[in-house]
Design goal:
single chain, 257 residues, alpha/beta, elongated
Amino acid sequence: MIISVVHNIVLMPPSLSMPPVYVRLPNWVGDVCMSLPSLQAVLDTGSPVVACARPWARDLLAGFRLDGFVAMKGHWRQDRAAVSAYKKQARHIHAKGLLLPDSLSSALVFKFAGVPSAGYRDDGRSLILRWPINKPDARLHAVQSWRHLTCTALSRWNLPAPPELSAKGLGLKLTQKHHVQALETLNNAGLKAGQFILIAPTATGLHHGKAKVWPHFDQLTRSLQNRGRTVVMCPPPSEITQAKQNAPTALVLAPVD
């Protein structure tokens, strides 16, 4: 460890002097992608960041310079034990938490793991959160809502605010392994970048009591194919049957991470 002493002031490297921030990410792939601007905003403060997310998110986030990763299995007692064990092993005595999900269980995990947290007031969580934050009056897109929560929390912690939200993308960082796997998948299917249309005709669960899958993927696929377009899909193994039912004429690529 290098410590510089200037005029009796001890200057510590940011990663050693700043308390770590444990960020509880959402549980779905699309939601994790929409939370990336918030994750990057915390990373930009120079604070060590520990991502707490479903196990598959470890690979998705491999391109980010995280201080650590704790796999969340969806059972709050098991998840609390995992966060607590990591925090103890890493000696993160003064860790803070940022809860992007609104669930009561996510707040309980950090509370009983000894991680005081910021999050939206919802589902009776106000007494559990150290920094409860009101939801915006305006109805925001998930990207904007999580970004607002993050910026408010950083302000409460006296950490630097991030720049304006970019409209160019969510900021997914890919590793060389990701690029290689993608090229291999395309080559095996006889495809070239920019010469096909990728659809995702599956989704699990309900949203406000309604199925989340758009019901017109078959019609869209056939319309595009009639115009000479190649339409492909790359569902995970557990959703291949559903994908073929929703878009039977689309080309199915081999599953990837």
